[in-house]
Amino acid sequence: MSPQHSVSSPSDLSGAVAEDLALYRDKFRRRLPESLEELRGPARGIVELPLHVAWSGMTSHDLGKPRQRMGLYRTVLHEGRRDDLPQFLNLDLLLQMWPVLRTLVGRTVRSVWEEAFPQLAARAQAAA
Questions:
Q1: Beta bridge mates, 48
Q2: DSSP assignment of the chain, as one string?
Q3: Distance CA 16, CA 27 (A)
Q4: Contact criterion met (CB below 8 Å) for 70 and 101
Q5: CA 102/CA 105 separation, integer angstroms
Q6: Cα separation of 88 and 94, whole Å?
Q7: By the 8 A CB rule, do 78 and 109 touch?
Q8: pLDDT of 7-58, one tens digit each?
Q9: Worst-scoring range by mean pLDDT, 6-20, 78-92, 93-107?
Q10: Which residue in 48, 73, 87, 120 has the fewest CB atoms around it within 10 Å?
């Protein structure tokens, strides 16, 4: 077999996967607010998300409708930039929704947020 067509060994692949996961986790860590108190987004009304956040779905969310509120938070947690989080997320709503919301976001998003903000992990434990 020629050098340019070598097959990766399982250990090479696991190292690459670990590196990809570390980069993915770092992407979400860099977006985190310094504290949850920065999350001063709206608690009611209609929220219009910009296309860079809601590029593949609804852009308008009614916070009075639980499914739309959950969808907005899930979208912002996954797609929002660092400056989007304080603008669109509200601390009280995040804490209230976290026990369910954490099951709707990806494992990486959930673990990054719960590691950075133990009060979220505590909310999840209390609800279990």
A1: 60
A2: --GGGPPPPHHHHHHHHHHHHHHHHHHHHHH--SSGGG-B--SSSEEE--TTTSTTS--EEETTSHHHHHHHHHHHHHH--TTHHHHH-BHHHHHHHHHHHHHHS-HHHHHHHHHH-HHHHHHHHHH-
A3: 17
A4: yes
A5: 6
A6: 11
A7: yes
A8: 444 455 577 777 767 777 888 999 999 999 999 999 999 999 999 998 877 8
A9: 6-20
A10: 48
Count CB atoms within 10 A of the CB of residue 91: 18
Count how many residues are written for the chain. Answer: 128
Written as six digits, the tokens of 45 are 């009304």
- Kindly list the distances between the CA atom of residue 45 and the CA atoms of 24, 36, 63, 72, in Å, as whole numbers in the listed order: 33, 21, 6, 12
Contact 8, 2 (CB under 8 A): no
Type of residue found at 51: L
